[in-house]
Every structure is written in C-alpha cells, then in structure tokens.
Design a protein that fits this description.
- By secondary structure, the chain is mostly helical.
- Helix content is 71%, strand content 0%.
- Helix 4 (54-85) runs parallel beside helix 7 (126-133) and helix 4 (54-85) packs antiparallel against helix 13.
Length: 262
Amino acid sequence: MGVFSLLFLIPLFWMVSTSAKVEKDVMVFPIQWIPQQWNWVGNFKTVWMSKVPFALFYFNSLKLAILSTLITLFISAMAAYAFTKLEFKGRDTAFGVLLAFMIIPPEATLVPRYILMKWFHLIDSHAGIVIMNMFAVYFTFLLRQFMLGINQEYMEAAKIDGSGYVRSFLQIILPLSKPILATVAIIKFIWTWNDYQGPLIFIFNQKLYPITLGMQMFKDQYADNYAVMMMASLSAIIPLVIVFIVMQRQVINGITLGGVKG
C-alpha cells in the first residue's frame, strides 16, 4: 500500500525536478529525476523578476487568505457558540435552516452574489472577495459539533462567578476550542489560497489578481518553457505544503472530533 501511495507523489517529484532543469532537458527520455545541468537559480529569477508581477500576486493571495481566515474564524466561532451555549427560541430551527444552505452549490449563487457586490460597489476589490468568503456554514457546523462536547458546567461555573456571555466566550469557549479553531484556520487558508473561480468572476484589475489568476498570466507568457512554469507552480504551493506538513495531524484530529461529536 505504501508503494502504491508513492505513485501519487510522482507528479510532485517531476515538478520539483523540472523546476531545477534547463529547458532542453525537460522532455528527454528516460526522465532525468536528478538534473544533469542545474538551472534552479535561473528559473527562480525568471519567475520572481520577470515582467509578470509574481511577487504582487503572491502578496495579494496572502492578504486574501489571511483576512478571510481570521474573519471567518471570528464569525463562525460566534455563530457556533450561539447555537450551542445560548438558549433562545427557535435556536435549533434556525440552525437547521442554516444547514440547509450547505446543499446549495456555490456556482448557483454566483449571479445573485455578483448583483449584490455590484450594488455595494465591491466588484473588482479585495474587500468584496473577503466579504463573500467570511460566511461559512460548514465551519459553523464543524465548530458547533466540537463545542457541544465542552461541558456545560464550565458555563454554569462562570455564570456563578458573574461572567457574561461575551466574557465566557472569550475566556472559556475559545481557549478550549483551540484544536478545532486551528483546523478551521488551516482549511480556510488552503481553500482561499486555491480559489480560482471567485477572483476570476469578481476581479478585473490585474494588479489585484491572486496567485491563481497570476499563474494563468504566467502561462500565457511562458507556455513553451516548462522549467519556468514548474518553478512558478512550485513557488505557488510552498505555503500550502509548509502549512499542511506542520499541521496535518491537527487537521485530521480536528475534522474527526468535529464530525463525531454531537
């Protein structure tokens, strides 16, 4: 099984190897997994110092991913807290209605969202992308399932000590929810970083492009240079690979906990 799983890594190995080659060695057969003539620095300079503003696209992606992740965490955590620890009429019904939105594919809401963004003059702006990204039913559901497992006695003890709902949320619920918050943060960051459809529909100014749209521009410029294209692809996925390698155990544990509780 382990041997077969390595097959899935072959495209990644080929990308890393190709990113360090000169172009004439890319398509030779048999494949040179270790380049005979290294051109890693040259390809790197071409990607980061060419006419295509790769660094700007990188910055835009980081900006969108970080802002979307932080705001989503805050809003989803507050919603999950309300649906688990607060008592109000119609709470379960409201949560059921919220869950119903999970069956609607994002593509089905593109036109209404476009009209709304146009009304609010948020087309062609990062603010519009962040606002559309910051509401996530799935993450509210995930956080709620985790918070259901937090003993209610913590809340009752805090209430006896005079703690209000906001203070209990900030000082009790959030610290106890760190594992699932980390999971949500990582998944949201990856989803936002890889988002292609949203920026493609709502952003027109090339200076606002994230890395996903930037790669398309890069392809138009260097379509016949696979070594440079692979270096650009490798540069684009480095943040995701680092985040996943460092936090993969927490992601899997968080999804498991969130999925089985409640």
